[in-house]
Amino acid sequence: GENVEQHPSTLSVQEGDSAVIKCTYSDSASNYFPWYKQELGKRPQLIIDIRSNVGEKKDQRIAVTLNKTAKHFSLHITETQPEDSAVYFCSQILTGGGNKLTFGTGTQLKVEL
Amino acid sequence: GAVVSQHPSWVICKSGTSVKIECRSLDFQATTMFWYRQFPKQSLMLMATSNEGSKATYEQGVEKDKFLINHASLTLSTLTVTSAHPEDSSFYICSARDQAAKNIQYFGAGTRLSVL
Q1: Could you say which of A43, A52, B20, B27 would form a disulfide bridge with A31 (CB–CB 3.0 to 4.6 Å)?
Q2: What angle do CA B1, B2, B8 make, to 5 degrees?
Q3: Is A18 in the B-facing interface, judged by CB distances under 8 Å?
């Protein structure tokens, strides 16, 4: 199947702390895993992505890890700031699946001062 | 990143009327675009895949006669919501796939549709 499970649905952290969001997929043919950040009423913005031939990728305060054996991937945000508050969606693309993105259910991240 | 323009950003219409939403890739060609619908506090649900020069591919449960998709050029796809009803009120978002950039998808700003 093409389902992507995402946890937690809401996450509150103190400014400066780290935040971790986890997703699990079911189809081993998935080969591309982008993460999107969406602020209220706005478009999803690609923040980081990882392909199935890589185990970890980092971009400043954001990192993504992929465990192909366990079929899960995670988003890590360090030194969180108030502007990180948004809804984050994990997603996947299946090889041969018409390049359709399948999204997780989303995580509402709130960074408190 | 690449830019995808979506218009209008907000539309209010009467029940029974039709609404057309445009999605344009501004600085790249997109043979494939996607249309999503998003209800409040929910995830993006794919409605259909829009293919340049051919018929769109609709997801299960999406009425193709109600949501008409036209992808007549490499930079423009349109979604027409025909005979709109209040239950069609939602946030509609398009995305365009940039084949030159490893198939990364870029999203439009979305269209908030309110059907009275």
Answers
A1: A52
A2: 125
A3: no
Element (H, E) at A37: strand A30-38
Taking the CA atoms of residue B22, residue B26, residue B30 and residue B34 in that order, the dihedral angle to the nearest 10 degrees is -40
Backbone angles phi, psi at B54, to 5 degrees: -145, 180
The answer for A99, left when phi > 0, alpha when psi is -120 to 50, beta otherwise, is left
Query: In this complex, is the C-beta atom of B95 within 8 Å of any C-beta atom belonging to chain A?
Result: yes
Q: Is A42 in the B-facing interface, judged by CB distances under 8 Å?
A: yes
| Tokens 């209800």, residue located | B39
Strands (E), B1-116: 4-7, 10-13, 19-25, 32-38, 45-51, 57-58, 67-73, 76-81, 90-98, 104-107, 111-115
Mutate to test the interface with B, among A36, A90, A100 (most CBs of B within 10 A): A100
Residue A56: how many CB atoms within 10 A of its CB? 13
| Chain B residue whose CA is closest to A44 | B107
Cβ pair B110:A103 closer than 8 A: no
Indicate left, alpha or beta for B16 from its phi (over 0: left) and psi (-120 to 50: alpha).
left
Candidate from B32, B46, B108 with C-beta closest to A43 = B108
Each residue of A1-46: pLDDT tens digit? 467 999 999 999 999 999 999 999 988 888 899 999 999 989 999 9
Is A86 in the B-facing interface, judged by CB distances under 8 Å? no
Residue pLDDT, tens place only, A64-95: 999 999 999 999 999 999 999 999 999 998 76
